[in-house]
Amino acid sequence: MDFYKLSKTVLFQGATPEETEQMLSCLKAGKRKYKKEEMIYRVGEVVSCIGIVLSGSVLIENDDIWGNRSVLERAGEGEIFAETYASIPDQKMLVNVIAAEDTEILFLNVGKMLHLCSCIFHNELIKNLLQVSAQKNLALSRRIFNTSSKSIRGRLLSYLSNQAVLCNSKEFDIPFNRQQLADYLSVDRSALSKELGKMSKEGLIYVKKSHFRLLSVQELFEEES
């Protein structure tokens, strides 16, 4: 395992490769590979381990009994998932965690994580976990804002504006393909694509697959010339 690379992840930020290796032994870490669209955690499961994405990415989804899907979050390389459920004893999962592509996951036992041991980095590990949880809460709050509008355009404008602020640029890549973006915003994919086409023609955006640039009308004309 690449302990140097792992020490740069959000959970082990600040640890040396040696401290990371020691913590992984303490936390009974285990790795597993998943194929694209393979289920990692399922609604109703009780879990005791959080996952760190070593490669690939996962989607956290909510599916209702009628089959409607809503993407709540995406976790990419170096990010974690299921920390809230794993930290609460006997708490059943209310979401599915699915591999968005071929993915490798490192699992860590939360029970071991929340009980201090002799490892030098353990205190910092808990601080990092708390910080990650706070960031996840902010991400869920942003999704509430992004889906509060009744119109598809309103949801798109809110989401794209937030992405521009997060990236500190009017040009950025989003972490979703078209279907995943539709699921995240809780709208129909065809209607979403149609609205993106309208916004492009009106000079609001330039879009190519998952790449966006927020435009003025003049900038759009310059792009097309």
Question: Could you write a compact summary of the structure shown?
Answer:
This protein is α+β, with helices and mostly antiparallel strands and 225 residues long. The longest helix has 25 residues, at 122-146.
Layout of helices and strands, plus pairs?
Blueprint: H1 3-6, H2 17-26, E1 30-34, E2 39-41, E3 49-55, E4 58-63, E5 69-75, E6 80-81, H3 83-87, E7 96-99, E8 103-109, H4 110-113, H5 122-146, H6 152-167, E9 171-173, H7 178-185, H8 189-201, E10 205-208, E11 211-214, H9 217-224
Antiparallel strand pairs: 1-8, 2-7, 3-6, 3-8, 4-5, 4-7, 9-11, 10-11
Give an overview of the whole structure:
The chain is α+β, with helices and mostly antiparallel strands. It has helices spanning 3-6, 17-26, 83-87, 110-113, 122-146, 152-167, 178-185, 189-201, 217-224, and strands at 30-34, 39-41, 49-55, 58-63, 69-75, 80-81, 96-99, 103-109, 171-173, 205-208, 211-214. It has a 4-stranded antiparallel β-sheet. A 4-stranded antiparallel β-sheet has the order 2-7-4-5. Helix 5 packs antiparallel against helix 6 (152-167). The longest helix is centred in the middle third of the chain and has 25 residues, at 122-146. The chain is globular and about 60 Å long. It starts with a helix and ends with a helix. 28% of the residues are buried. Residues 220-225 have low confidence and may be disordered.
**Overall SS class:** alpha+beta
Instruction: Give the tally of β-strands.
Output: 11
Would you list the SSEs in sequence order as H and E? HHEEEEEEHEEHHHEHHEEH
| Count of alpha and pi helical runs | 9
Q: Would you tell me the overall average pLDDT?
A: 89
The largest sheet is: 4 strands, antiparallel
